[in-house]
Fold this protein.
Amino acid sequence: MFRYLPFLLVLALWIYAFIDCLNTPEEQVRGLPKVVWVIIILLFGEVLVGPIAWLVAGKHRVAPAGGSTPSEWHRGTAAQWVAPDDNPEFLKSLKEENKKDEALLKDWEADLRRREEELRRRERGEEPKGD
């Protein structure tokens, strides 16, 4: 198994560099035309010269916006979101929804009681009351 590992790593790097070169816009390609880079990657991929040359010199790498790295983005900033069970606004909205649901349930129960009473009257032969 381990004897195939170097071959698989070379193949993975070769495929990555090839796809990266194909997906890179022409404006970001440095030094040579994009077609030449594709040929270099394909011809010299087995010895890693082509893919490594592409990754090192072929593509213009853009620095992150603002010049900061992801680790710098998080330094000195507090988390802006709060877990739902700690968020007072969310808990308040749950209470309001519960009140609405309870009112709706009471209305349904009252309607059900009224209909049951009406059915009992009909079964007894009584005339329904006019509301």
Notes: The mean pLDDT is 83. The longest helix spans residues 88-124.
